[in-house]
Amino acid sequence: MSSAAAAPRAASKTAGQENFPVASLLLAASKRATIMAYYHFARHADDIADSTDLAPEDKVARLDRLDAALMGGEDTPEVALAVRYRRAVGGDPALIGHASRLLPAFRRDSVRDHCADWADLMAYCDHSAAPVGRFLLDLHGESHDTFPPADALCAALQVLNHLQDCGKDYLELKRVYLPRDWMQAAGMSLDMLEREASTPQLRAVIARTLDATDGLIRLATPLPGLIRDTRLKLQTAITLRVAERLSRLLRKGDPLAGRVALGRMDKANILVSGIIRGLTA
After folding, report:
1. CB–CB of 171/255 below 8 Å?
2. Is 178 helix (H, G, I), strand (E, B) or coil?
3. pLDDT (tens digit per residue) in 246-257
4. If 0-12 CB within 10 Å is exposed, 13-18 middle and 19+ buried, where does residue 29 land?
């Protein structure tokens, strides 16, 4: 089968496997179908970018067709999830924009395999992560004053996910999100991502990345107090606690030795403490 005709792999991740709750029961039932339509669109675009069966130019072409479908320009089975999302939001330009704004990150993933420095990683997160938070906030009619701390929280979650998957991303996709200049400063080589345990050099890069990520989490801390919708406020407070806990776990755990993730007790504690934080914000 030619690369141009090859279909992308089945979805690599489901909503239940994400670090953050997708369409949580805390959110209004009337919003959940729209949230899932956004999630399925984003996951599909991500899977196109991560496909090992498609050539880079074919990936970009498919992503361009998704973008055209969002804008109402195409309606074929290949772009069904984009059409479904457009219909779910009733053609709302702002909500469509939050989906379209994801696509530059996936186009970049299709043709580029590294981040030069922290600023480059943040530029990537501006498309891969920030639109998700802004979508949820606009869907709930929140003030755009919430955007800066939401952007910080979404970027933090994205970077934490990159750290969790740093070995897997390199082994399967030859893609590295760790800032290249920090790797060079620590004396870290790419082959260190292929090992079964982290080297001191990789640990140094992870620690430096977590230091910067903790700065993002601090910038996000006021967010629950800025949100008017009670359900979204509670969900946001829980998500903030997820980011805080994952950062601590990654400082102690080794993402090459096994996936560093929340355990059952972590999730229970985060739920309770997050709700308390949300109610008092």
Report:
1. no
2. strand
3. 999 999 999 999
4. exposed
Angle between helices 103-111 and 56-70 (to 10 degrees): 170
Residue with tokens 């996709």: 173
Compute φ and ψ for 168, nearest 5 degrees.
-60, -45
Beta bridge pairs of residue 115: 179
Helix (H) or strand (E) holding 274: helix 264-280
**What is the signed CA dihedral for 164, 31, 78, 75, rounded to 10 degrees?**
-150
Q: What is the pTM of this model?
A: 0.91
Residue 255, exposed/middle/buried by CB under 10 A (0-12, 13-18, 19+)?
A: buried
Smallest CA-to-CA distance from 14 within 48, 49, 39 is with 39
b/e per residue, 111-147, with b = 16+ CB within 10 A?
eeeebeebebbbbbbbbbbbbbbbbbbbbbebeeebb
What domains can be seen in the chain, in order of their start residue? 28-112 (no CATH), 113-281 (1.10.600.10)
148-202 pLDDT per residue, tens: 999 999 999 999 999 999 999 999 999 999 999 999 999 999 999 999 999 999 9
